[in-house]
Amino acid sequence: MNPNAVNRAGATTHLPNNIKIEDVPFQPWARALHEAREAAFESDEPHTRCKISGGPRQFITPYGVEFVDMPEMQRVYIFDIGGPHTYRTIYMDGRSHPKDLDPSYYGHSVGHWEKDALVVDTVGFNEKFWIDREGSPHTDKLHLIERFSRPDFNTLQYEVTVDDPGAYTAQWTGGFLLRWSPNTELFEYVCQDNNKSPEGMVGGTQPVPRTSLIAP
To answer: Is 8 inside a domain boundary?
Structure first.
């Protein structure tokens, strides 16, 4: 994972044990798709077309995210700022994942505290987003274990274990650091109005092919 985004603005730093892409245990089809996505990059990536991004990709975006802990509701919300301006719910009441989930961008997240670290278990993803900026693929079998901790007041450490037997031959773990920017507030951000990738949205000056599997 090679994040270029931040938590409430600022630069990210890799974890010392951050996995290298050549060490990710891709299945052959997943490695080929990853390489094709890297070559296409912004022209194909759903995030640049204002689509919701689940998993690690949620945190790799300009303007970052905001965590809101509501213990009286036994929930934690993660609000996106510089993406599609959506939010994710983490249930903290000890519930289990439903048996028959409708696949979604963020999936179904349940969390608990391990001392000062928030640990989140998520399943029920659809296949309509990339899990990182490099285009690492996934299937609807994706299961993520995310761990959020603060090694110091101004730093959020994000670690994720990816378990997807549909796309990988083994579990793998990656992560990155995000910087806290104090004294900032959520602001209005309309992705479509601010989009800097018009070619990714509508195909530039050329007619949009309606036969494409990539929806504009």
So the answer is: no
> pTM of this prediction?
0.82
Please check whether residue 2 lies inside any domain of the structure. no
Distance CA 1, CA 204 (A): 29
> What is the domain extent for residue 135?
13-202
Amino acid occupying residue 210? R
* Nearest-angstrom CA–CA distance, 74 and 55: 21
Give the model confidence (pLDDT) of 42-63 as tens digits: 667 888 778 898 999 999 887 8
Beta strand pairing status for 108-114 and 75-80? unpaired
Residue 60 contacts residue 14 (beta carbons within 8 Å):
no
Q: Is the pLDDT of residue 200 over 60?
A: no
Query: Count of domains in the chain?
Result: 1
Q: Letter for the amino acid at 132?
A: D
Whether the per-residue pLDDT at 88 is higher than 80: the answer is: yes
Nearest to 167 by CA among 136, 134, 128: 136
- Among 186, 178, 195, 170, residue whose Cα is nearest residue 19: 170
How many Å separate Cα 99 from the centre of its chain? 23
Average pLDDT over residues 92-120: 96
CB 140 within 8 A of CB 105: no
* Matching residue, tokens 């949009």: 208
Residue 100 lies in a domain: yes
